[in-house]
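cron nightly-structures :: item 1 of 1
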Amino acid sequence: MSEHLIPDADTPADIVQIDLRRWVEAAANNPILHRDRQVTEILLAAIGMSGNLKDTLILKGGTLMALAFASDRVTADVDFTTSGDAATFPGALVEDLNAKLPRAAVALGYLDILAKVQSVRMKPSPDGFADHNFPALQVRIGSARRQSSEEKRFAHGQASRVLTIDVSFKDQVYSYQELRLADAGVAVRAFSLHELIAEKIRAQLQQSTLDKYRRQDIYDIALLIDQAHPTAEDRATVHAILIEKCRTRGITPDAQSFDDPELRRRAAANWATLGLELSVLPDFDERFTLVRDFYRALPWRG
């Protein structure tokens, strides 16, 4: 494995200017989605304002796909991985968010929106949480309009509108980009293109082991390939990161791994449900073939 192909982990692979407000206002005709996006904007600004959180939380998943890669796939949750210590980070996360969310709302001009952490769930259970191989948090952020019927429920930790964020621990992140949020004047970290493709391929390879069905990964990887037109150098970097990610999960991939019929079956199983998130549902066979051919074209040895 060519470790020199992995970018410097202390330096962003790219710096991208993000017009988050445009993404928010694109949902103006859908009140529920619009509120969720407003709270997502407040959340990301709050993270960028926190010296601790902006250096330890890395955005990934569907929200990143929408903001940095123009995906129109609608996702309900906001996904992060963190380099924070699993024993102490949950408490620090809640404290920092509750301190910064009101400031972020004001800075962004959302003077009528209240937001705070409503609950935190440790997965698996709190007992021995930090000792699990890949623990995760589910954090629910409630929101309400000031001086509305929502405000009383919000004050009692029972907000009617809740944005869920998922935070995973102990993931190895080898390459990140910096998203600069123009309206907030801050930046947050996010998976780079190479990291995102490698992570999604790793998740596909691990479907059977974890008994998962991940139809969204094929759609996302194909979209990234279409947008980026990966070069031989890009493929080499993705391959280097993928090998390391698989090694940490006990997987040994090879050039034929994507030919596994069970992998394809699981990726296709719920493909039609993507039609609920997309304006146009692409053909699975065409998208899968594009991803499989990209995978085969990685610089496998032997």
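cron nightly-structures :: done
The chain has twelve helices and eight strands.
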